[in-house]
Amino acid sequence: MSSLESDKVMSPKLTVELLRQLRLAMKNCKYFSEPIQAYIIPSGDAHQSEYIAPCDCRREFICGFNGSAGTAIVTEQHAAMWTDGRYFLQASQQMDNNWTLMKMGLKETPSQEDWLISVLPENSKVGVDPWIFAADQWKNMSKALAGAGHSLVAVQDNLIDAVWQDRPPRPSTQLMTLGLERTGMSWQDKITALRAKMRERKINWFVATALDEIAWLYNLRGSDIEYNPVFFAYSIVGMKTIRLFVDLKRLEDPAARQHLQLDAPSRPELSIQVSPYEAVHTELQAVCAALGPKDKVWICDKAGCALTQVIPKTHRSQISYTPLCLAKAVKNATEIQGMKTAHIKDAVALCELFAWLEKEIPKGTVTEISSADKAEEFRSQQKDFVGLSFPSISSVGPNGAIIHYRPLPETNRTLSLNEVYLLDSGAQYKDGTTDVTRTVHFGTPSAYEKECFTYVLKGHIAVSAAIFPNGTKGHLLDSFARAALWEAGLDYLHGTGHGVGCFLNVHEGPCGISYKTFADEPLEAGMIVSDEPGYYEDGSFGVRIENVVLVVPSKPKYNYMNRGSLTFEPLTLVPMQVKMMNADMLTQKERDWVNDYHRQCIETVGAELRRQGRKEALDWLIRETQPIA
Amino acid sequence: MSSLESDKVMSPKLTVELLRQLRLAMKNCKYFSEPIQAYIIPSGDAHQSEYIAPCDCRREFICGFNGSAGTAIVTEQHAAMWTDGRYFLQASQQMDNNWTLMKMGLKETPSQEDWLISVLPENSKVGVDPWIFAADQWKNMSKALAGAGHSLVAVQDNLIDAVWQDRPPRPSTQLMTLGLERTGMSWQDKITALRAKMRERKINWFVATALDEIAWLYNLRGSDIEYNPVFFAYSIVGMKTIRLFVDLKRLEDPAARQHLQLDAPSRPELSIQVSPYEAVHTELQAVCAALGPKDKVWICDKAGCALTQVIPKTHRSQISYTPLCLAKAVKNATEIQGMKTAHIKDAVALCELFAWLEKEIPKGTVTEISSADKAEEFRSQQKDFVGLSFPSISSVGPNGAIIHYRPLPETNRTLSLNEVYLLDSGAQYKDGTTDVTRTVHFGTPSAYEKECFTYVLKGHIAVSAAIFPNGTKGHLLDSFARAALWEAGLDYLHGTGHGVGCFLNVHEGPCGISYKTFADEPLEAGMIVSDEPGYYEDGSFGVRIENVVLVVPSKPKYNYMNRGSLTFEPLTLVPMQVKMMNADMLTQKERDWVNDYHRQCIETVGAELRRQGRKEALDWLIRETQPIA
Prior knowledge:
By secondary structure, the first copy, chain A, is of the alpha+beta class. Helix content of chain A is 33%, strand content 19%. The first copy, chain A, is built from 19 helices and 28 strands. Chain A has a 6-stranded mixed beta sheet, sandwiched between helices. In chain A, strands 12-11-10-8-13-14 form a 6-stranded mixed beta sheet, sandwiched between helices. In chain A, helix 3 (88-94) links the parallel strand 3 (79-83) and strand 4. Chain A is globular, with a radius of gyration of 25 Å. The A-B interface holds A 147, 466-469, 476-480, 483, 486-491, 515, 518, 556-561, 563, 565, 587 and B 314, 466-469, 476-480, 483, 486-491, 515, 518, 556-561, 563, 565, 587.
């Protein structure tokens, strides 16, 4: 999927004319009552989405840089773009010399605030689109600018859109309705549960802005954003009313109408009032105008400030994690069963891929891109396949050491018997979302490659087999994944795990396993996270071993303070290559874990391969799951 | 040391008359221009001290409760005192019924802010002594009260002092000067290093308020506060001036005058201007009045708001950890050598104690208090002994499960052959500070006691032997201490380690090993922390194994990104009782660690015992350090 987009990627975009037009717009009183001296263009959309639709790629449009993270700022004289170390090279190749690349993380690089203060004339106005600028960002930027005599101002019309001639329309894909057999809970019951939480916290209204939360709440899916089965919408839920803001054409579909009971609501308080997507601002204003003196409105602190600021401060209750985010993270029995089914199908596809690779690689015709495409092909043959859950990281040898690698024609490497192959990929099925990384060698790995793989494996097992008290936050488990690497003087510079949605976003809050955060919510049974330690040897190879794991109750010998204990159950059931392991470095416990895991793979996935009559893949699986001594 | 204070501890203090007087003072315009409707009495002193002098025990004076943590609030109608679970029983026994005990941590207990808002008449003034109320507390409380129409006001004279007839005077003990042979760095060089940091961050003035930072900076010690060798002082350091605020009588001592070069400063910029302790406010005002437009003043964000608010906001730079705190934490070679010497002497004393206990316990005459006293006696025989570093936790059987236990006559238990004994104690020597916990059984421990001890030991070793990258924060190591307990379903409800001063406070920032904080500074070579996991079986026994350990460079096989690695070296060298270990539960690595540790004990402490001719203790040490198979 990555080959199409990438052709034009590496030549700089010419931006003289665009910048001229943008600077004109900055002075045009049609957009703001006074001229503004700087305009900030963030990466995001109005829903805090990690992946965004083409119509929201405004920062890419204005500067040419198309990486996932970056903020552009244009003043009358300057244009600068901030991004992190992953993208220094790419950004410098994609931007012309009208732009200054601001390398985040380097000591000499100023923050956006400091830079603005250093270049702006006195008493400047800095404009931003309040829809895509989060409330917490607004607070910090506004304070810093005010301290230097400037002011941050909200420009309601987006100035990039104003100069973007052929801006793609906002997608409005068909809505897919999910029944109880997929979701385990009707949207009506989810609304009722949400209202119970609101009552408990004395909250009268809840404003939902995150697309995955809205999709989860209404048991609907869309395909507005690549890899993420979501659709553009907002929702406002009160104790007696429900408002959904969405392109009304999507609701002409009888299935969607019936699913939402638009024509015959079962009960008045479960009647959904639908309005156009754009009407959310006006409707929220109306809701706020009618608030009682003690009424409170819940909104996520990462929501755009356009909506946040509609709610008067005394009525606003900002939260890091919404009740939908928390409820969505704990999967119910139906969702867990769906995730299990999806992972078995996904394992079937990967067994097929690896069996196929073994045969094809010696011919010298398989590349990073063709291998990823083949994986997608095998996955697409599985029932209820919808699409990939993220762009496949298919990387050979030195490319494997680039953590966020994505093969492009100019970097595309051929798989061989001489180099380590790392494949991090996943899919969306109607019953669940997958995300799995395997690191394999098709020839003979070096002793050093095996050594590093084994440290990573020890870390993976240490997390997967950990037993920990109920109420433990995931960040407390992160060091378990690193202990073996640290002992050898090695490490990896990314977190160990992220939450995974059920036929939803492959990255979701509020839990995870990372040294980088302290604000994660405690793990509880039913949550699903990834366990993916790695090791990256610059210019040589990369190792990552990733399973998606389910948090399950554990029954150790004792039960201190009746707190209960938890552990993880792997949902991913794809063999870890024994050839890459140095078995002497493993403890007996670790060897037992590997053998036990492979027993589960052969029992569960083997049965499915047999059922689907996929003989070659089955033979491969049988061979790859032989116990180690 | 604990026996004297404790006689009157458990009968409630009669507070009717005191409260009447305090309420009169709250209405007296001599203290504040208008009557105030509530007065907050925190625990602390004006220096964020953990232990406080008798003259600062204002909360104890007004309500009778003498635990280490608690805040009292008095309104016209109510008097309430907030404390945590450690102290619910004690507080309820020490306070009369004019007081409401507010049990922190229980769901139904309101926060101080919420309670104030619920009981205050409209538009109330809430008073506080700004010297002992920290700047960050002020901010939160002030905001909450303002949101409900009240205001927080600074009452310059402390109202408790106003009604406290026989308030003890502020201590002004003799200052002890420490030469280069103890400190490894002159105060002049410390000032120069501080100024370099200030220059680096473009800071013009630094206000020091923490007593241990001031003692460290000037290489002086005092005994104003029990257990902590500090003295009451403030200091303000500019690029060309140094001001020290201290009771001037202390500086009549020629040794102190000479040490500080008061009569003949070597260089003008190293000339110390001394002023009375109380003059700091006026002098800081004078400094601030003369600030240039871009001048900045550094002050700790936990300093009292009286001084913080003197610094105009635009000139104020508040920091969590001051440069002195950070510099003090990394011990130099002389300090490390001193700490090692102190720990050897301390080990000698404990070997003597344990040998003595073995002989005496069968007679049935040794109690928790007499054992602690005996430990103090043995320590006091060691060279350069100054005093204890904290009240000894000497606890038998069920008392050992009370984490913050301190034996009192009414709880004092006799040591026997049937119960586990936990002793957590330490001392101040002129060359260093110690803090050690050992858990022992003088008869035959039960299988369960051994099992729990062994989990704790595994956790202790996991931290002590951990190898981790330079730049790692201590909180990332906390779970290593818990993994074995967690696997058995057990845990302990305290952090794993704290920073330790060198002949200074036994608890110091900015590093530590705890799941509770994210704001600790990274560990670096030369830092000293404790490693003290535990397990507490309510009503039965407690286990804790504590060493003080030094952060040292480690040389593992690889060196990822040239970051370098660290590990710990135990400074404490007291045997861990093999009798309490279930050796079958230990891995070979863990057994090797125990044997290696005991080899160090016998080599280092054995030699010293021999030198001191302490035969019985040496025999005990030889026996207790026999290798396990």
